[in-house]
């Protein structure tokens, strides 16, 4: 069930109608059933993985909270880590590492019997694994009390709006929203609808329309220099619109049901350095990696070289989280390198803040810094999008010595219009520091904006709608 398909909105209409008729606890039970139906529509067999993770972490959390010996608490934590990371490793990485080992043996001159393991990747496994792990780790750190209602905990793990591609919610944020009665309001309904509309424009009008042009160049045997540059710029826009579009719809759907999901993107391409970028891009993952991996490795304790080591290890593993391929590891190392270089040159970055009051000259300087750093981000996206190491080497060379010309397929006019609308929207959020800036405008203006967005969605919709990019992670 895709957010961009009619069957999801029919499903959501039925869920919403039942939701408003039921009391609080019955709402939670109905949402749990709906979440399992939503996930089971992809492949019902993988519901067993969610259920296993749910049972194990629920039991571990309760037992850990009552254990008095530290060694017993640590054993329980290792059970949770082993089960969750074990499932993730088998279904996502086992085939990749076996293939890599075979290639290494072949390179070393040994004959390896071919062994292939065809394992289907359960959609969303990386997201709900990290989400439920944060629960047991927080209990182990004594930062969270366990949930005693099993069905409420099961809903935390499987809540359908953000189950497949995040944001990766923390138990301390989402569980109270589940256990306490929620208040429905027309204001939340309206704000949720606007988020859904914006997310659909990002995905359908922009990302899906850009994708064929990007795919054509990354599949081309002989692209020009400007083909590579333009396709990589476009992929930067595609992946942002695809992923943040999913998050917008997930947050909008949840908001209409009275839930508050965390903001996962904050105009990331307005960043001027790598530290600011990772405060704005995939916030739920970057904060998860910071809190549960980087700090556990030692963080910035122990001197600069250990800090750089911890940054590189964290980002390399963060890259591997995105997919079982070496280009994702290389992308992670590249991001870790940017963070380390920035830290070495600038020290701790002083946050400027969104909507900060700046002089005209300061804004010009910042815009130039944004434009320069965006190129560094885009080279990272080239590493991310490339299909092989050979293509990375080839495309990198073409950035400097490639033939002239431009052969990239034309992008639909609606996509350009959508990009302009999105740019203006993000600039207004950045300038005001308020994601709901439009609510202070007169009703007639807001009505015109909503009508225009609906028209743009209808005008720009294509029949080539595809699954969200992050479903593969």
Automatic annotation (TrEMBL):
<feature type="transmembrane region" description="Helical">
    <location>
        <begin position="149"/>
        <end position="168"/>
    </location>
</feature>
<dbReference type="InterPro" id="IPR051085">
    <property type="entry name" value="MB_O-acyltransferase"/>
</dbReference>
<feature type="transmembrane region" description="Helical">
    <location>
        <begin position="76"/>
        <end position="95"/>
    </location>
</feature>
<feature type="transmembrane region" description="Helical">
    <location>
        <begin position="44"/>
        <end position="64"/>
    </location>
</feature>
<keyword id="KW-0016">Alginate biosynthesis</keyword>
<comment type="similarity">
    <text>Belongs to the membrane-bound acyltransferase family.</text>
</comment>
<feature type="transmembrane region" description="Helical">
    <location>
        <begin position="367"/>
        <end position="386"/>
    </location>
</feature>
<keyword id="KW-1133">Transmembrane helix</keyword>
<feature type="transmembrane region" description="Helical">
    <location>
        <begin position="449"/>
        <end position="471"/>
    </location>
</feature>
<keyword id="KW-0812">Transmembrane</keyword>
<keyword id="KW-0012">Acyltransferase</keyword>
<dbReference type="InterPro" id="IPR004299">
    <property type="entry name" value="MBOAT_fam"/>
</dbReference>
<feature type="transmembrane region" description="Helical">
    <location>
        <begin position="406"/>
        <end position="428"/>
    </location>
</feature>
<feature type="transmembrane region" description="Helical">
    <location>
        <begin position="7"/>
        <end position="24"/>
    </location>
</feature>
<protein>
    <recommendedName>
        <fullName>Probable alginate O-acetylase AlgI</fullName>
    </recommendedName>
</protein>
<keyword id="KW-1003">Cell membrane</keyword>
<dbReference type="GO" id="GO:0005886">
    <property type="term" value="C:plasma membrane"/>
</dbReference>
<dbReference type="GO" id="GO:0042121">
    <property type="term" value="P:alginic acid biosynthetic process"/>
</dbReference>
<dbReference type="Pfam" id="PF03062">
    <property type="entry name" value="MBOAT"/>
</dbReference>
<keyword id="KW-0472">Membrane</keyword>
<dbReference type="GO" id="GO:0016746">
    <property type="term" value="F:acyltransferase activity"/>
</dbReference>
<feature type="transmembrane region" description="Helical">
    <location>
        <begin position="115"/>
        <end position="137"/>
    </location>
</feature>
<dbReference type="InterPro" id="IPR024194">
    <property type="entry name" value="Ac/AlaTfrase_AlgI/DltB"/>
</dbReference>
<comment type="pathway">
    <text>Glycan biosynthesis; alginate biosynthesis.</text>
</comment>
<dbReference type="InterPro" id="IPR028362">
    <property type="entry name" value="AlgI"/>
</dbReference>
<keyword id="KW-0808">Transferase</keyword>
